[in-house]
Please model this.
Amino acid sequence: EMRFITEMFHPNIYKDGKVCISILHSPGVDVFNTQEKAEERWRPSLGVEQILISVISMLNDPNCDSPANVDAAVMFRNNRKEYEKKVRQLALKSALSARSEQMVVVKDFSAISEPKTKLMVSALKSLNVSGKVLVIANTKADENKNLELSARNIPSVKLLLPSNLNVKDLLEADFVVMTESAVNEITERLA
Model:
């Protein structure tokens, strides 16, 4: 048995996270599932690598003829764009959750009173963050007006608008710094 511990929305994954794929089923013939051949089921000669390759393949190319999650299968078939949006939202929620210990929330960046790199360096130092830092803030908001110019000369800092937040940038960062308004915007987007 294989189970995802994060919330998943996929035609071949039950709502509790259990993966439904032939290679994980007990050996032999299943009289209740004639679509599945005995040679597609688990056998001792299969290693972890083959199982992981099969799961990755399933994630990219679901079997909607025998779904574990009917809602996901119907959406995948009938509205692929909506399905992909929902999957991206869940991936973003999962990535945010995974980064929670390396996340710092600040009211805003109004302390950066002028567009000076040293003020940004000082702000980051006071937050106790180092390495690759992802800063998520509305740089057009008045309280953050100097943020973009102050951070642009720091190669280890990346600025993102809350609307552009993505899994890749979240996972690549050592620390994530978000303004309160960015947290609210992202929470609303993922609700």
The CA atoms of residues 5 and 24 lie 17 Å apart. The beta strands are 103-106, 133-136, 157-160, 175-179. The longest strand covers residues 175-179. The chain has seven helices and four strands.
